[in-house]
Every structure is written in structure tokens, then in C-alpha cells.
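re: that chain from earlier
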Amino acid sequence: MDKLYKANAYLTDYWYCLAGGLILALISSLSFYYHWVGYLPAILAVIAVLLLIAAFVFLIMTLVMVIQGLGHREVEDTTPLIILLIGIFLSFIAGIGIILMIIGHVLLKKSIKAMNEA
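^ sequence. v structure.
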């Protein structure tokens, strides 16, 4: 059960870091394009890279928790974990696993909610 909570927390942190990094990268690229003065574009680019590195670390930590959760006997419904595992590996290969990761995250939250109610 603890593995599911940690996987859910790491995956939530992954989404926040990924979204923040991509938004800052977009703002930084636009600021480079429009020749904003000063160091703002470079600072935004560095922060965006750090956020994307943090997102990658959270993705690895989520992968570890998913693998540990699959082997744990307290976990009854392994469907969200298997979907997340496939989505994580597909996101490493081509980035197309994001849809599976979103589906797996929704199912994981439902599974945690059902286990809390029982």
C-alpha cells in the first residue's frame, strides 16, 4: 500500500516538473526569438533544464516504485501499475507513453481511493 502512495506522489511531482519545465522552455525560446535584453532568457533556460532533469528523476523513482509494487503482496489490483510500467517504457523510447501514463495515473488514484474506503 505504501508503494502505491509513493508511486502516486512521485508521478504527481513528475507531471508538475514536466509541465513547469516545458512552459519555461517555451518562454525561454520565445524570449530568445524576440531578443529580450538581459540574462532572463538564459536564466529561464537553465531553470527549465533543471526542472526537466528533476522530472526525469521523478520518472525513475516512479519506475522503481511501480516495479516494487508489482512484486508486493499487499497490492491487489496491479492493472494501473502495469499500464504505468508500459507507459514509462514507451515514454523513454519515443515519448508516446504519456497517454498510457495519464490513464495509469487515473486508475492508480481510483485504486488508492478504493483501498482507503475498504
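Residues 2-33 form the longest helix (32 residues).
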